[in-house]
Amino acid sequence: MAKETKMLKNDEAKKLSKPSTKSLKANETKKLSVSKTRAKKIKHSYKVKDAENALLLKLKDGDVVIEMYPNDAPNHVARIKELVRAGFYNGLKFHRVIDGFMAQTGCPYGNGTGGTGHKLKAEFNRNPHKRGTVSMARAMNPDSGDSQFFICFADCPWLDGQYTVWGEVTSGMEFVDLIKRGEGQNGAVYDPDEIISMSVIADL
Fold this sequence. Notes:
By secondary structure, the chain is of the alpha+beta class. It has helices at residues 10-15, 26-29, 36-45, 74-85, 173-176; strands at residues 54-59, 62-68, 96-98, 102-105, 133-136, 149-152, 165-171, 197-200.
């Protein structure tokens, strides 16, 4: 996975606690606000095991549901939810996307070099890296996961036990498949797709 080497300064990190929607187009920001009645219907329309540990990822082509593994990666799940609720992921780019492999996002700089500066101790588990798996990106140090994560397009067994698997896509994988691919061996994307928004389904 791409290295996360550039840390944010304290004043920069504070800014991350606010939802970042300024980079979204007008037609995309409209999707972020719905009435309470509509939101309640939306919440109950997602058939998830635990709404507190499930995410709604909005992409340009449709909605993606990610169910998380709080028992297998409790610290990662807690941190992801904290960042989601702070609006950290809204508008971030899928900066590294390799066809047949995975789509990576979560860098505030949009190039794979950044994070929040809050490193997580690895929680490697027995969950396999298969199509739809959501796992934490990291640098060479196993305990260097921060905010970046990736979604597997296909089975990637060589990653098993090397990266922290914290969830899986249970609905909308067809929309993940439509994320714009990158070029070259590293999968860097020109004019990449963005996360419109991420929400904890219990909060809808």
